[in-house]
Amino acid sequence: MATHNKIKKLNAGRDYIADRFQGPLCLSDIARSSYMSPYHFLRVFKDMYGETPNEFLVRLRIEQAKKMLITENFSVSEVCEQVGYASLGSFSSLFAKQVGMAPTSYRRKLWALSSEAYRFPAQVIPACYAYHFLGKLTK
Question: How far is CA 81 from each of CA 76, 104, 129, 137, rounded to the nearest angstrom?
Answer without folding.
Answer: 9, 15, 26, 24
